[in-house]
Records
---
Amino acid sequence: MFSGIKFYFHPAKFSKGRLNVFTTQVKNHCGIVVESSEEATYVIVEESCDTLSLPTSLWHEDRVLGSVWLSKCLKEKLVVEFQQFRITKPSLKRLTSSPESAGAGTSESGSNKSPDYDSRGQTSKKYACSQPSLKNSEACNAAVLDQLQKLADVYRARGDQWRAHGYEKAISAIRRHGKEITSFEDVASLEGVGCKMAAKVMEVITTGSLRKVEELCTTEESRVVDLFSNIWGAGPSAAHTWYTKGYRSLEDLIKNGNLTKQQQIGIKYYNEFLDRMSRKEVEEIGQKVTESAKEVNSSLTTMLCGSYRRGKQTCGDVDVVVLKPQQLNSKQILTSILSRLKDTVFITDDLVSLEKNGNQRKYLGVCKLPGDEHKHRRLDIFVVPQTESACAIMHYTGSALFNRSIRLLAQTKNMHLSEHRLCAGVVRQGKEIVDEGQVLSTPTEESIFKHLDLEYRPPEERDH
Ligand code: DCT
Ligand code: MG
């Protein structure tokens, strides 16, 4: 398949083993391996390498490609389209990154607006939202997923959102793969998984664990920052600050931590909030909110969203959307529902109360079903006009990664999707929207997928 094609392997970062494998494979497929970049048809680089030393002429001719392209060709046994694997100067970032990777985009990815690119049908395939999440897909790569999740958590706790997101993207891609990974090529060919990540996956497969996890997750700092960042209302930066001030336990924080009201509640219910609840308990809590809403106004309807609607067996909190006719006032509705739920001591604490929020439609708080057997649970209530129901329900159903993905996909089509509406013909200057375009009719979730030219995914398939 590589007949007449000349390959030059830029030596930086290529391991000897990989270089040998690639060289042999190229030759086996009638390709030619050359010794200088100038005479090459394609210059293949490891995505992580410093390519600044390459001659300028190569950049002009778009001849520098990430090694994942070659892996893909070998796997699919054909010369696959190379545009999305181009490496651009002077960026060292990979074009093969899925566009949802925070910060990893280049001109080819999230912001690409070229209709030509779209028409090749490649754009939407790169987005997680265009593929179903698979149920119980954790089992076949359990050790890999466990180790990568540990790294994602530790980076998130340290405030390194970019790295955390990279790991989460890889976790999502491996889960969607749904098959046991046994080789480097298996994993490197997945969207959103680059060579460095693939090497980590191979390390788990061959050794059962990751040195990086041992290095980062077993220090006292990571243990304490992890403890603190699990407090509701405490972000990674607060957790770090407390650590640097010398606090090591929740008791230390209670004594000295200068805690916000939310963090005090977060500590009060520390273990209860970390415990996930059954679907049955979510339903019982949802029922309480529904009853109150119906008492306030019989035209109100409710829907349980979040992980519950995605069919998860356990849920971290309860996300209830209350749908209202246009003419009713959101704040009045929410105030009335809350006052009923507080009268019966079902709601025990406010985390973000309406007055302070400035936001008239969202409530975040704590509730508890009667009886000692029940724990305090996180409850979110969102009041939404029926006209926005599909966009709101889709947003509050998530997952967060699915939402990020579908919004980015919308951007590539000059659309804008929010929890309120879907607009087309949107004009952006950089990230800023300068013209909202036209609001599209979105009576159902199906209609949103249709506008975006995506196959419909039921909530269970959005658990990315
Ligand atoms: N959401 C989002 N972006 C975020 C967080 C949330 O778009 N950063 C959306 C998607 C899910 C929904 O809000 C509810 O959020 P959570 O309750 O935090 O998540 P969940 O998926 O319901 O999971 P959990 O079981 O942990 O509550
Ligand atoms: Mg939830």
Note: Residues 306-307, 315-317, 319 surround magnesium ion (ligand 2) (CB under 6 Å).
---
Amino acid sequence: MNEMISKQALRMLETYFGYTSFRPAQEAPVASLLRDEDVIGIMPTGAGKSICFQIPALCKSGLTIVFSPLISLMKDQVDGLVVQNIPAALINSTLTQAEFNKTMYEVRSGKIKLLYIAPERLGSNFFCNVLRALPIAQVIVDEAHCISEWGHDFRPSYRLIGEWLRSLPKRPVIGAFTATATKSVENDIKQLLGLQEANVYVTGFDRPNLSFSVIRTPKRMDYVVHYVRQHMSENGIIYCSTRKDVERVYDNLTRAGIKTGYYHGGLSDEVRHKMQNAYADDTLQVMVATNAFGMGIDKSNVRYVLHYQMPRNMESYYQEAGRAGRDGAPAECILLYSGQDVQVHKYLIEQSIESPIRQEIEMRKLQAMIDYCFCSSCLRKYMLSYFGESTVWTSCDNCSSCKGDNERVNVTREAKAVFRAIMGTEERYGATMIVAIVRGERTERITRAGHDALPVFGALSDVDEKSLKGLIQQFVASGYLHSSGGKYPVLSLTAGAEEVLAGRKEVEEIRQHVSVPSRRSKVSTRTGTAGTRNAAGGLFEHLRQHRKKLSKEENLRPYLIFPDTVLIDLANLRPTTLGEFANVKGVGEAKLKKYGLSFLQAISEYKGDL
Ligand code: ADP
């Protein structure tokens, strides 16, 4: 352990949260806040940010105020703390005057240790004065990137926090936490919250429990329906680029008998709220959504995120895929790629962005996303290096490249023929015509134009039409060809193609062997994460149902009772006494007392797979 963590902090961690040690990335921020030194913590989703400030809050005398951007997030966090016997409360616009008064009374009498506040409340002078009179030991700004216009979730009300901090009679220690790590966001956080002297801790971006795959298939709908059916007891998100696709995927899954929800910007607040709630409490198995389904999702047991289309850049992809497996248990992130996605994105960038410089930047980001889809080496390594992190290992053992699903095939012969056909027809045609020429089809259009006289005519008569079209898509994606986009895209050669024609470069295709799309990946041995859900068998499902029943009775999100990781361990360990139950990671004293006997009974009643 690099940092000295007090015994008291470790005791609190075990008593309240049921964990015997801090994660390495949590130690420094916890120690720093305990020493009353400001902290900026940049940690990826699922790294365990909350504990970094919740434990110091429990150790300090006085109140911790936590600013949090969304009412739903705030409620989840507070519910999760209260069920662990941690005195927490929230103040936001949903409270009645009586509830507000009661909460403030409890805060003033020192009963509450953590008070979650929506920053909008700082707009009221009266409220600011009330807060100023409290013994504030620590102020935490959660999702701190919301303060910056450079971030993706700018909230003007976050700007009130800095001013309010400056007005306090005694400056408390301040911690700002976020998963967004760009320098401009970090600088804004420093400047606007007065954190120039803060200790900045940046945790690696790797999420070892997530497996990453790219599947290149034209039959995406079949894949999705098949995949979801193979994972009936799991929750997942399917991201689509357009509202129309959301509705199509939703229809198909619903027809296949799957409890599916949908979510996009065109729905009323009421419907969105309903969908989000039903998904959070496990009533819905799958949510099909556009990227509008975002920050409010604190659900820890999302077991897979499928992308029905390739997103526009790696930043969006990592953020959306990262909603899987927040609980640290194995989860899958699968991107379904089709060459059409490239055309659509290029078209949208050209149409929606005026500035040529911005266009150029977006195109470069898009190219990096395409390269990810065609990356034949470790996908995780590629992704981390994109975000500026170097890795010492070469294989993660937990992505579609490392699991050996790909085969490299030399396609230089095919590439040269296609490039020559494009050159011979003066870059005037799209893929259909070029394929017909290289396959030697004597259509009326071809003979009339005299293309059957080209030396390359019929040079690839041994290759079928579909494979050739797929290859052309890959040549575009890999930057050998340029496609004009729009309704009738025309192909032209790039400098890369000229290198190939000059014999200076070979072209490889990555061929995938996708048969049954349900392969549940093993968790990388590099990570040491607990066993997979599959290993836990039917007892896990039985415990999940039991948790669901309790969740309904108590009106509490299922994952706040116990996350999936605890259920997996329970199913594997099958404790028979409260003592054995207490050894399960993530079971603190309060939850043991509250739910221990009920889960022990559920385990003893289970008669399956013994
Ligand atoms: P973040 O806010 O960074 O996305 P959370 O605070 O929600 O992450 O934590 C993610 C998961 O990790 C939660 O299920 C949490 O209980 C678990 N966790 C946090 N700290 C520890 C720890 N020291 N040991 C084991 N699990 C932990």
Note: The chain has 25 helices and 17 strands.
---
Amino acid sequence: MNASFYLPTRVFFGERALIENKKSLALGKHAFIVTGKHSAIASGALADVTAVLGEFGISYTVFDKIQENPPLLTCFEGGKLAAKVGADFVIGIGGGSPLDASKAIAAFAANQGIEPMDIYDEAKRKNPTLPLIAIPTTAGTGSEVNYYSVLTLPDGERKKTFKASDAWPRVAFVDPRYTYSLSHGSTVSTALDAFAHALESYLSPKSTVFSEQAALFAAKELWDVLSQAPAQFTPEMREQLIAAATAAGMAISVTGTGFPHPMGYSITMLDGIPHGKACAVFAGDYIEYNEKTELGKARIAAFAAHIGTTPKLMKALLPGLANVDLSFTEEEIDRRVKLICGAGNYTNSPYVLSPDEMYEIYRAHFLKK
Ligand code: NAP
Ligand code: FE
């Protein structure tokens, strides 16, 4: 058996993770803090960060312009500002959007003079990204422990992932308390995203014994909480969810994701469906198509048995929790499927969908009757 596992991120997990390990926040002299409008404040994470920076005499600039599904151009603007203020490290605080954006900003800040699309060209990014710290406030993407930065292209309709071996956060502070302020709906959606990561990673041909263990741990914790459909999330549940999301982030750092991700991007970008729910719409299809292969069927059965359920229940519960109600004309479906046809990760599972099958799936879910 051959396998490797690489995780250059030091993860501090648990209540007060940042306060208890505050020295690890001091990566430079001026921090560029990347956030959305409200989550960094609502979660309490920004107050903890600025208190520690103040204690160490580290100056900082807060850039709170990151919208959901972060635009490449906002990251470009952030990178310019980070360089202008002389930042020598970056701290991302928030859900996947600010965390992903902080990776791109750290890359742009270190490579002044490149054009926005040059971020995807390794030859043009001559300097290593600035050191990065990630502090998640959602239990979903696992961005704190991987090197992916999912960005919205300037057309506003498509996403493209920036990946770089030096875009891993150096440190992640994962404190379940930072997710307490997340609404019920966003908690379900982000947990569905983490579940999609676990399942899609487990089925990926690139999975290894190490990524599999992370995926199975994540799936069990997530299923335990989600299958109860709780009206409220207790602190214990929130801890389970964020431990699982971080583990699932480690799993996809090895394997990447599968076709529910690109298929979901179109209804996120054009119809405003949050990322996790958009992926979960296609969870039943993902299971059903992969069950057509011998390998896929065996893997799905093993995954379901490990988490104490059946493929049939997963097919019902996951899209049910997403509860997405959209309907489109043939032209609207055509536009959405065309946007995803070029994505690489739809080939990352035992069953590889054809473009015709993508149309079939979209029609089955959404075609106006
Ligand atoms: P998000 O887009 O970062 O945030 C969604 C919403 O939740 C925002 O309104 C945000 O507010 C709010 N929010 C976040 N934390 C909160 C808190 N503790 N209390 C109150 N409100 C809070 O959500 P996400 O699902 O975590 O991230 C989705 C993005 O990550 C997508 O762009 C997706 O493509 C990407 N993604 C990346 C990876 C990866 O591996 N890197 C994997 C999957 C998905 P603010 O606007 O104030 O921040
Ligand atoms: Fe995701």
Note: Residues 258 and 348 are 5 Å apart (CA to CA).
---
Amino acid sequence: MKTERIIIEDKEQPEEELLKKPAEILRNGGLVAFPTETVYGLGANALNEEAAGKIYAAKGRPSDNPLIAHIADFDDLPPLVTVIPKAGRRLMEAFWPGPLTLIFPKSELVPYGTTGGLDTVAVRMPADPVANALIRLAGVPVAAPSANTSGRPSPTTADHVWQDMNGKIEMIVDGGAVGIGVESTIIDVSGDEPVILRPGAITQEMAFAVLGQEVPLDPAIVSGPMKADVRPKAPGMKYKHYAPKAELTLVEGETEDVIQNINRLAKEKLSKGFRVGIICTEETRERYPEGMVRSMGLRAREETIAHNLYGVLREFDDLEADFIFSESFSRDHLGQAIMNRLTKAAGYHILNTGDKADGAND
Ligand code: TXA
Ligand code: MG
């Protein structure tokens, strides 16, 4: 299949004329990748089981992993769900359109092919003007996972999508680099109490402020490596995700200890002839004399770290790094999402420099 690529010059007010073709492809059961404020999505008509099926084939994604239905307006929600629980209503009023996905009990309109066989449906109303205009023009809810090959870092530019999807989908809508850079927060409001299934830019602290109650993380997120007996509520969280090709180690502890340890580990691997990547921040980049050093952004402004995270992981794939050593971040606010993605990319391989025995957590 030949993949067409169209470029949106004015991202704030995308030309409707340009979006007519991708909207028609979506309506007719084809696949279109498009930008959202979090990451690029790989869209298909969410109400068409066969179209949703094509997403799984293009991504090489297990078919029990449900898709998020993207909508353009509040009015698009009621047909997809059986109830809108109070917590869900308050969260959507506070954060939609935006980087928040909510899980509701699904209506009969939504096929099991979209929900991976579940009786719930994930719904999100993106704020990105290109995404919003495209969904509106398509006139149907758009099922869209991140537009990467399953197991690779999510795409934050149209070039990333091209690397993974060229030849597999009808069209890529190029709206430039995304803003946030990590996937939406997922909150399940279908049960008795809301639960965070995936941390994102709508933070635990922000959800607390709106609901006036703690919103716990799904235990499967906190418990580290997926154990057979802790089944994550978001089926996607059980797969090895966001994985770079190199072996990634996260180094935690006091800044000076972290820098020393990363330099030591890098030296060791370099001396054996390996290609070594180092992930640091603007504040520390001058402190690493050896290896392929990439800064993710300013530690003091965590949104810059989220923005560059997947791009840096992809760059190390291109550079064919064998080992990557990365600095760590606080687990508060946006740091929770950053550490969630980094920890998974590292396959839970964390070195805590505070531990007495060197490499105890290795
Ligand atoms: O920011 C985002 O959410 C991006 C953009 C494109 O909107 N999309 C995205 O989709 O990250 P995806 O498919 O890569 O991740 C969706 C996650 C998966 O972990 C999936 O298992 C979970 O949402 N999920 C979807 N429907 C669910 C449901 N009914 N119950 C529980 N988890 C669900
Ligand atoms: Mg994904």
Note: The longest helix spans residues 255-271.
